[in-house]
Amino acid sequence: MTQRILIDPVTRIEGHAKITIYLDDAGEVTDAHFHVTEFRGFEKFCEGRPLWEMAGITARICGICPVSHLLASAKAGDAILAVDIPPAAESLRRLMNLGQIVQSHALSFFHLSAPDLLLGMDSDPKTRNVFGLIAAEPALAKAGIRLRQFGQRIIEILGGKRVHPAWAVPGGVRSPLTPEGREEIREWIPEVTQTALDALELFRNLLDRYEREVMVFGNFPTLFMSLVGPDGLWEHYGGKLRVVDAARNIIADGLDAKDYKQFIGEATEAWSYLKFPYYKPMGYPDGIYRVGPLARLNICSHFGTPMADRELREFRQLSPGAVNSSFMYHYARLIEILAAIERIDILLDDPDLSSTRLRASAGVNCLEGVGVSEAPRGTLFHHYQVDESGLIQRVNLIIATGQNNLAMNRTVAQIARHYIHGPQIPEGMLNRVEAGIRAFDPCLSCSTHAAGQMPLHIVLKGPDGTVLDEKQRE
Amino acid sequence: MRILVIGYGNTLRRDDGAGIKAAEAVQSLGLPDVEVLMTHQLNPELAEELAQVDVAIFLDAGAGCERNPVSVKEVTPRSGATSIAHTGDPGYLLYLSKLAYGAAPKAWMVTIAATDFALGEGLTSPTARAVAEAIDIVQRICRTGTFQGNDLPTFTAHNPSR
What we know:
The complex is a heterodimer of chains A (474) and B (162).
Chain A: E1 3-8, E2 17-23, E3 29-36, H1 42-46, H2 51-58, H3 66-81, H4 87-119, H5 130-136, H6 138-159, E4 168-169, E5 172-173, H7 179-206, H8 211-216, E6 223-228, E7 240-244, E8 250-255, H9 260-263, E9 264-269, E10 272-279, E11 289-290, H10 293-299, H11 306-316, H12 329-347, E12 368-375, E13 378-386, E14 392-398, H13 400-403, H14 405-419, H15 427-438, E15 456-461, E16 467-473
Parallel strand pairs in A: 6-11
Antiparallel strand pairs in A: 1-2, 1-15, 2-3, 4-5, 6-7, 7-8, 9-10, 12-13, 13-14, 15-16
Helix pairs in contact in A: 2-3, 3-4, 4-5, 4-6, 4-12, 5-6, 6-7, 7-12, 10-12, 11-12, 14-15
Chain B: E1 3-8, H1 18-29, E2 34-39, H2 46-50, E3 55-63, E4 70-75, H3 90-101, E5 106-114, H4 125-144
Parallel strand pairs in B: 1-2, 1-3, 3-5
Antiparallel strand pairs in B: 4-5
Helix pairs in contact in B: 1-4
């Protein structure tokens, strides 16, 4: 007989989820499941909609990463129109995606994870939040808010709206960067660069405190996948897909997103509505792979910008192969913020950003298209099939959080095995299980939907299913 | 008196978009000294904007309050441990505003009764009617900067969904 510890739902992530930890008779952890309990009907909802509406519709999946869906959708539309978009449109899309990466990573680090990291995993949960962080580190916390604001302003300046800008469209974008917008973004650069550098310094100094967490927070060999540019350049919008193993050996390269079904399988489990993508050549579940900041840093050879490359060299010192600890997602996220700021700074010098030649016009030339981009949380695929008039017949979205599903489950099990022995869970231990999930910064509203918030609910069940203990964190 | 109206929700989840719809309508009125924002979720950077106004009005959909098409309650800064998701709630934002920027406005939560949160666009008829009522309430708050409970015959502080 087994015992079960239920953590329901997980707090400080987006959407509905719970964790079940299975114990044996001796009270030791045998397995763990990270459940997603709300069905995703979004793909069905899109059927029958005009292709040209898809970017605007899919951007409304999520309030945190709308730009990621906007861009992947627009790229799928580009493929269906069979057009090469104007160079200025690509630069502008890149600029918006970089703003998106900055704002999303800033939210993840400063608001969601920094309280754990700076105040301590065992600190009082009542103050282990952004308010506690402001009290303890006011300058850092405010700088984090400003950093996110910077990313949001880029999106707003380009798209004309803070969220859900229907700005990228099949064939290009709707409007250029105005001279005023360019200057406003440029004025932010020194401040946000310093914020990113300070956060990196802070994180490195914290690492000694979290040696154990580094060892057990999702620290296992997997594959990693991301887009990569020419010569291994860090990429977030274009390029081809690359897969590396835990030793950073390239096992697949130059993969075209349109062929994703050849190398990505999608398994299902009865206990979760979130699918389990895997690298097909290695089968399920051996084809476990991770996407997102950690994957992108393990895969790329360089950023092509001086400060980020300096940080990458230091990051590489963590391991001779790939950095396998999911705890290091935080580190990778901070380096990507810095890289994104440097790229934004460079892009601002591109005179093409003010071009008015922004959109290729065409009708439906292909009945199928796949768009891919690097969302903050990892590689995002939009696959559409349309009829001759461009009405959507079928949609498949493979989101970053889903691709990390196997790794998140394994992370929970690893942490639970290390910290939990018996049916009683100390608060700090519970938070470590959650923190392991938060390292991936999952955004379940992309796969399901976030309708309101839920408190933390923990139920301990004995071998016969009776509730042994129950806790609720309001 | 500077007033910020924030409507939030997901317009692809039918009635969940009621706050957005109401905010759009308020914006179209062009009320003086009233800024209107529409957003999917309450994100932390809104704290800075809140610190710069005297009154804030939050507009959102709420489940389980069908008996009261529109409910209004004053919101005060709140330091809770649970509202630190990708999204926050009004009390959390006000507390963040106060802590990070030294000021938080007087604030009102206007909750619009919602029943249908399925994927889709458009509001159910009862929620659409409630939106019209909410717009009227927002105008009244904008005129005086405050709200009296007996302004609404069905006044309630109930807001179970967020």
